[in-house]
């Protein structure tokens, strides 16, 4: 407090000296606000919106959030406009998911997505995100089985899209690739449970790790991912009890999708939770809007107005 007053007094003295040199008369009362001391307001870090929430989200901040029990909200986005909207709404992490293959390109699986396509989508999202951490999926075929190719792929994503981390599906079988990427200083988020890039191996999108052997391997893989340096893990479509056990066994954030509420955060595909895509309705999905109906009605209204010459009217013409 004392040092603060001294610094402000010196500041006022310099201002007065400057004004006297310039022969400018200013009443001392006008300078009184400069030395006014205001007690800082301490806000509850667990409140919904605080000044702290405006800080840029980083991998370290996510770990801090887990430590203090603050849930992490994560959503997918694939373009500038939607990324800007969900970032402004307070989402902590934006995942540029290879689910773009389904909801943006109309493919049945995520496998067709290329590295160039992921970089394009990630680059667009980064431009719209100010606060959220942007994580980009590494697409199928860019990291499995070849650590050098994995590193080169991750470097391209980081350099060309300016994304802040990458996400990779798999455990021990891709350890070497993850370690190679981490060695370059690139943050990695793991993904265990149902891994859509392996759909042809599984043959189904059913719940994973219900059997003891697969559950034990998943726990081992989660601990391994933490040990080698991953900053977080996504658990997809596994029993809630198992997901909770994993979240409690590691110190890094565990984000669930169809993994119950005992984890550190949740992620959904934006098109699913906003009701844009109505063809996908798993048990874990909660729809927060019905944009498909809203868009259909709005476009239908526009078409009608054009056909009847109601649009544009005189006010909408130059």
Structure description:
By secondary structure, this protein is of the alpha/beta class. The chain is built from twelve helices and eight strands. It has one domain: TIM Barrel. The termini are far apart. It is globular, with a radius of gyration of 26 Å.
Question: What is the fold's blueprint, element by element?
Answer:
Elements: H1 2-21, H2 59-67, E1 72-76, H3 80-88, E2 93-96, H4 100-103, H5 115-128, E3 133-137, H6 147-161, E4 165-169, H7 175-182, E5 188-193, H8 199-202, H9 212-228, E6 232-236, H10 240-249, E7 254-257, E8 265-268, H11 270-273, H12 291-307
Parallel strand pairs: 1-2, 1-8, 2-3, 3-4, 4-5, 5-6, 6-7, 7-8
Helix pairs in contact: 3-5, 5-6, 6-7, 9-10
What's this, in brief?
The chain is of the alpha/beta class. It is built from twelve helices and eight strands. The longest helix is centred in the N-terminal third of the chain and has 20 residues, at 2-21.
